[in-house]
Design a protein that fits this description.
Layout lengths: L6 E2 L4 E4 L6 H14 L5 E5 L2 H6 L1 E4 L1 H7 L5 E6 L6 E8 L10 E4 L2 H6 L6 E6 L8 E8 L39 E4 L10 E2 L3 E4 L1 H12 L7 E5 L2 H4 L6 E3 L1 H17 L6 E7 L5 E9 L8 E4 L3 H7 L7 E6 L7 E7 L2
Parallel strand pairs: 2-3, 5-9, 11-13, 15-19
Antiparallel strand pairs: 1-2, 3-8, 4-7, 5-6, 6-7, 8-9, 10-12, 13-18, 14-17, 15-16, 16-17, 18-19
Length: 340
């Protein structure tokens, strides 16, 4: 059960990745499988910290190739005997359609609404095959520990309210309350598959993260977004500037400089900022400073950013989502603002 590959222990379900299961949990899974008798094998996932906190799930390639769509689409998640459903984005790396490569399911508000936590076990049961127009998955939740104290505690099939195991550890740490900050780092092992990419270290609240997810649901997108948390240096009246986190810049912006250099253009390059729902645009200059003995690599928006910040009334703690636009002659980014 600790192998990285899929573990086919039954014709009715497979284990994804590393699952540190107790005997009681294994019995719960078997009992649930016997009860639902799935037509398509169920994917059993023990939620990692990264999946629970960032609301992203890497679907194992072998399983996805057989039972999940072979293109970017929306997957509908539902709970047993519940009327509500969640529309979640399913993304395949553009260079690996139907072949090798990661498949990512962005769980969005599903994690928040169902109180999924690290260590919980989710059984993903495809209800339709890939030939159907709508791909629907029923999710059965087995909790790591009882959450009877939580508002709207789960009553889904397969819940193990009250059961604990010494192997699984003690009382679960509660998530930060609204208004309490937690730190986001882009050094995660799954950073390349995240819906959002941040600066090196950014503190956001759970409420802000939920707002980001709500905003993204309104947008047709191809991930990831770059998220900038406005600080005093980015919105001050005298000489504000915006610096992109290096992981995002290295992957998506440095190649633009390489292309410009190939055309014989040196120095800062033009970057056009657009606003959601606005007809005008803001021309800016993007500067790339390479590492020296005293500094690190930096990607900074200089000329033009003060006008953008002023015209759009940006304040400290506002969040800006930057979406790199495709098929544009000039380097262009659409900016979506989530107010503090």
């Amino acid at each position: 059960m600790e192998l990285d590959d899929l573990q086919t222990l039954s014709k009715d379900y497979v284990l994804s990745g590393k699952c540190d299961l107790t005997v009681a949990q294994g019995a719960k899974i078997n009992a649930l499988i016997d009860k639902i008798r799935p037509e398509i094998p169920v994917l059993v996932v023990q939620m990692k910290k990264s999946s629970a906190n960032r609301a992203t799930l890497i679907i194992q390639k072998d399983y996805a190739l057989k039972y999940f769509p072979c293109e970017d689409t929306t997957i509908i998640l539902q709970l047993p005997r519940k009327n509500k459903n969640w529309k979640c984005k399913f993304h395949i790396r553009a260079s690996s359609m139907c072949n090798a490569g990661r498949r990512t399911l962005y769980l969005g508000k599903f994690v928040h609404d169902t109180h999924v936590r690290e260590g919980d076990i989710c059984l993903f049961q495809p209800m339709t095959n890939v030939m159907h127009r709508r791909f629907i998955v029923t999710v059965h939740l087995l909790q790591k520990e009882s959450i009877a104290h939580s508002p709207g505690g789960r009553t889904d099939i397969g819940s193990n309210h009250g059961s604990t195991s010494a192997k699984m550890g003690g009382v679960k740490e509660e998530p930060p309350a609204d208004g309490e900050e937690y730190e986001v780092s882009e050094d995660s092992e799954e950073a390349s598959e995240n819906l959002f990419m941040f600066a090196d270290r950014v503190c956001i609240t759970p409420a802000q993260e939920l707002k980001l997810l709500e905003k993204v649901e309104e947008i047709k997108f191809k991930p990831p977004f770059y998220v900038a948390l406005m600080s005093r240096s980015t919105v001050c009246q005298h000489g504000p500037m915006l610096r992109f986190g290096w992981q995002y810049a290295a992957r998506y912006l440095v190649p633009k400089f390489a292309a410009a250099c190939h055309r014989g253009e040196n120095g800062p390059i033009s970057l056009v900022l657009q606003r959601e729902g606005k007809s005008r645009s803001w021309p800016t200059k993007l500067q790339y400073r390479r590492r020296t003995l005293d500094t690190t690599n930096q990607m900074t928006v200089l000329k033009g950013w003060p006008s953008f910040a002023l015209d759009n009334h940006l304040r400290e703690r506002d969040l800006c989502l930057f979406k790199l636009m495709d098929n544009e002659e000039q380097l262009t980014m659409m900016v979506y603002i989530v107010r503090r």
